[in-house]
Structures are given as C-alpha cells and as structure tokens.
Design a protein that fits this description.
alpha+beta, Immunoglobulin-like, 2 domains, 18 strands, about 30% strand, binds zinc ion
Length: about 350
C-alpha cells in the first residue's frame, strides 16, 4: 500500500525561518520584511531577532503568518575579539504567537541598546545566566521544549563548531544545512552534522534559511511547509511534525513508498539521491534529460535492515539541480518506512 512520507495533505507554503529586523541588528523593519518576502511568494517568516522574543501578530493575516521566535547565543570566550570565539546559536520558535518572554532570556547577552525597549515586565522577571557548556546548552534546549517551543541549531560552520560541540546536543528539532547569510560570506554548512545526529537516532529536521540582516542575504535557503491551512497553529504543527523540506531551489512534490519502492517527484533536477545511515546510496544522475520522477527499489536494503545490521536505520532524499542548488528531505526512520 502506498504511504506518503512527505505529507500530501493541504498545500505547500514557502517559509524563511530565520531573519533579523531593526528590532535587533537587521536593516529592515518587520513590515518591510513581510512585504519583500510576500513579493517573492513566501507565506511564512519567522522573526528571530537576537536575544529577545517579540511577537508580530499584527503582520499575520489570511496570506501571511509571522512566527514568534528568537535567536539566542552563548560564546565560549569574551576575552578577545568575537571572531576567535566559538558560539552556540539556537533559534527558539514559539507555539503561542503572543509569547513575549522565554525562560532562558539572558539580558547580559544583549549588545544592542535599542533592543532593550522590547523587554516586557514578564521577561524582566524571568532571567537565566547561559554559559558555554554542553550541559547548560542542553538545559536551555530542554527549558524551551518544556514551554512547547521548537529549537534549531544554527550555522555550525560560521560558529566554528565541530563534532565535539554538537554530538551531545539533545532535544533539537532542526539543524541548518544551509544559511544564506553565512553561505554568501563564504561559510558553507554541510549535511555532515545532520547525518552525525541522525546516526545517533536523533530525529532532527533539516533547515535551509536566510538569516537575513540585509537585502543581500534574502531569498536563498527556504523551507516548503506542507500544512492544512495558512494559520499560525497549522504552520507550527506542520513544522513540529516535520511536514516540510529544505531547499535552495529544487522542489519536492512527492516522496512515497509502496512495496519497497520509494517514489520521488520533483521539479527538473540533475541528481536525485536516497542516502542512508550507512554507505548505501541510491542515486540517479542525468544532466542532459533532467529528472522529475525517480523510483528506487530499496526492498533488499529493508530486508537487510530487518536483520538488525544498523543501529538507527533511515533514508533521506537529496536533490541537486543543474546549477548546483540543493534540496533535502527529512530523514525517515525504519519504523516509518516499513
Ligand atoms: Zn546566528
Ligand atoms: Zn541569525
């Protein structure tokens, strides 16, 4: 029986889940951000201003959802120029569009005086001293999760972080595989940290975002959310469930499995890969006749996995178009594809 891995319910909505406005260090106002993204066909933007959670419910209407969120950071040293410091950057996405405070707010991490005006009384009363330590970072993630929030791990390459910094992270919802602001400045993230976490059985989802501060950072990485309707709750729940894919160009129309055959329908691409937790890769490449439908029979692979040969088996889809733009599905673990 055919089973849809990428949800087929509702519609796709284009989203940028990482942007900075003049509430923190972005150049544009929240209203300008909404206008320029809507002009490019986006329906959702998460306003992730640094260190402060400011709802923009006035921007949400029947054509647009403004997700309430923030980006928090913790650096490993303050005795030198920031360029020498490792840093954890996490986005926290709220299930409640009116949320104007969060439990791990650390006023000492705010470096922009004009952002102080957005500190609410509730927030002032709720403060936390974040430190660069894996146990504290995991506590911060847990506290956000306890408030129902989703947490993403941002741009590990720009953050100067390696396996030792992210391998023990727990409770993450998403991880950036592409960050336009970083990539356009030469810091290219990869899928390696994503696979490293997946191989531990951590069901983290792939993200491509803009992290826009200036117009030149806009319209690169995005996610396509499959949701029943364009409302805050419907979009948030689709994100929470992983009903989306990440992309810098190619579109995924369908990922399904039927009797051991994975079917992938896409916009025209030069490469379709179905990677796994091990070195098996199902791949098709055709640069002359671009691909829009690929079927991979993975029945023998599933039979092998049933023998318990791998600890946390999964499959995930990667696309590349002829210009080198990529798209990533989330990972589907064995219990979801069997
Ligand atoms: Zn950041
Ligand atoms: Zn950012």
């Amino acid at each position: 029986m055919k089973k849809y891995l990428l949800s087929n319910i509702g519609n796709f909505y284009k989203a940028n889940l990482h942007v900075h406005t003049n509430v923190s260090d972005g150049a544009m106002s929240p209203e300008e951000i909404k206008r320029i993204y809507m002009e490019k066909g986006y329906s959702v933007v998460a306003f992730t201003d640094h260190e402060i959670m400011v709802p923009h419910t006035e921007l949400t209407d029947e054509h647009f959802v403004a997700l309430t969120s923030t980006e928090i950071s913790t650096n490993n040293r303050t005795d030198c120029d920031f360029c020498y410091a490792k840093t954890y950057h996490l986005n926290i996405y709220s299930p409640d569009e009116n949320k104007n405070c969060f439990s791990t707010f650390d006023k000492s991490k705010m470096w922009l005086e004009h952002s102080y005006q957005y500190i609410t009384d509730e927030q002032e009363a709720m403060q936390y001293n974040r430190i660069y330590d894996i146990n504290d970072v995991n506590k911060v993630i847990k506290m956000a999760n306890d408030e129902g929030c989703l947490v993403s791990y941002n741009h590990p390459v720009w953050s100067l972080q390696d396996y030792s910094d992210y391998a023990e992270l727990c409770g993450l919802w998403g991880i950036e595989l592409y960050n336009t602001g970083c990539a356009r400045n030469g810091y290219f993230d990869t899928a390696q940290p994503f696979d490293d976490l997946l191989r531990q059985g951590k069901g983290v989802f792939p993200l491509a975002t803009d992290d826009a501060h200036l117009l030149r950072d806009c319209f690169g990485g995005f996610v396509m959310i499959r949701a029943e309707k364009l409302t805050y709750d419907s979009i948030f729940n689709a994100l929470k469930n992983g009903d989306f894919y990440a992309s810098t160009g190619p579109e995924i129309h369908e990922i399904s499995i039927d009797n051991g055959v994975v079917k992938i329908l896409t916009s025209p691409v030069a490469f379709v890969g179905l990677s796994t937790e091990n070195r098996h890769l199902f791949a098709k490449r055709d640069e002359e006749n671009l691909l829009t439908e690929v079927n991979f029979d993975i029945g023998w692979h599933l039979d092998m996995l049933k023998q318990g040969i791998s600890e946390n088996p999964y499959i995930r889809v990667t696309l590349m178009d002829e210009k080198g733009n990529t798209a990533y599905s989330r990972a589907y673990f064995l219990n979801e594809i069997n």
